Amino acid sequence: MKSTNDDYIQKAKGLSQEERDRLLSRMVGKLPKRLQKEKLTPDEAIAIQLEVEEEQLQEWRINMAAIKEKAEKAKAKADEKEAKAKSVKKAPEKKVAVAKPSLATAKTAVAKTTTVKSAVKAKPDVKTAAKTTATAKK
Fold this sequence. Notes:
This protein is mainly α. It is about 75% helix and about 0% strand. It is built from six helices and no strands. It starts with 5 loop residues before the first helix and ends with a helix.
């Protein structure tokens, strides 16, 4: 367990009763047990708790700085990727010349389809052909 530091004991003595109660309620581990068994005075226990919390705060700040740095790198990488994607999209498109069909080609295509359609319509039905041959024999 930690020993008390004189600076933290002075800080503990300068706290209001409400702040002291809050610090005592946040104690975990062996510290509250030592306080209950009267191995520590309340000022010493509060001083140790202040020191522990300050160390935790320093660790938290270091971790947050690392997280922020990682986030900034990820954002920079995403921005770079987005800028690269935009530059690819902005590249001018090359126009490819497409040959347009001439008017003569279009007319022949229409003529071919009409001929096929008329040939299909002109084809006699089997029943109709049988009737015409029967009437022709009479």
